[in-house]
Amino acid sequence: MYRKTGTLLTAALLGLTATIGWAGPAAAAPSASADAPTFSLSRLVLEPTERGYRGSLRVTITNNSDSTQGFYFRIREAVAASFSGGVESRCESDGVEEGLLVRTCSLPRSSSLAAGESRRATVEFQVLTTPRSYPMIAAGGLVTAYSYETGSLGTVPFSAQFRSLDGKLARPQTYVQDTQANASVEVIGPVTDGPENTRRVPLRVRYAGDARQLGNSLTATQLPAGSMILYTDPHDGPVYGPQAFVPGGLLMPGEERDVALFISRPTDPADESTPITVELATHYWMETVPDVDPSDNTVTFSLALPTS
Prior knowledge:
Blueprint: E1 2-4, H1 11-14, E2 27-28, E3 38-41, E4 44-49, E5 52-62, E6 69-76, E7 83-85, E8 91-97, E9 100-106, E10 112-113, E11 118-127, E12 136-147, E13 151-162, E14 173-174, E15 182-187, E16 192-194, E17 198-208, E18 215-221, E19 229-233, E20 243-245, E21 255-264, E22 276-284, E23 287-289, E24 298-301
Parallel strand pairs: 4-13, 12-14
Antiparallel strand pairs: 1-21, 2-3, 3-5, 4-5, 5-11, 6-9, 6-10, 6-12, 7-11, 8-9, 12-13, 15-17, 16-17, 17-21, 18-20, 18-22, 19-21, 22-23, 22-24
Protein name: DUF916 domain-containing protein
Organism: Micromonospora inaquosa
Signal peptide: 1-28
């Protein structure tokens, strides 16, 4: 179950066309000679949508040499945790630089370009923040292109440009992303019997702010013998352990999501009254993002059914 709290987007957003047209190269790597391979970038314009901002960066590599070469590129995002894939991106994780994710990407169809051939790759981005009435900009993006035969073609910086709700890009303000998460969890109903000898524990997860996130986990401690989280509702695959990730993907600022944990009953029925603590945490790459108020990140309950 999904809810969105706060003010809905204005009618200006609903009437705004979200398609990004090809705007021509925003930047190009310098070439040492006329027959050296080159690459160029489009602008990255992020359009406001009902779920944050979305946009595409297009990387075009041209093989100006007189022989076939293979190419790839390495891209660092301009906004933390904004990579969203895309069918053409063919990108793999390559670590973090200055808090920003890095991907190494192949060209679509094939990495090889014949002499004189050009090919364009598209990388998709989504920034889960509330769309603003004013334009914004975030610098820090980098693209480095490589030839398998000759090495680096150079590095070109890029910025993420956030279009305002009324369609403006001029005179942007700097986009400042939250550095601390603001998540919370609560128990929203009684523990009940579930299938497969489980108990169903209903929880509600909330997320405020736009701190970087790659996932949000629910970790149970003090589980009695024989008990573990088997799966969640909404279903997101089997768990069979003490930790489950909040299903449904990442959360928007102001969004709350109802999640049920199905926990196997303890081996000893007397242990059903053992207090169990579940902690909500926000994850980014290899770190846990600090929370503004850790006091609302934990809940405690038992697997005992309420007495009538």
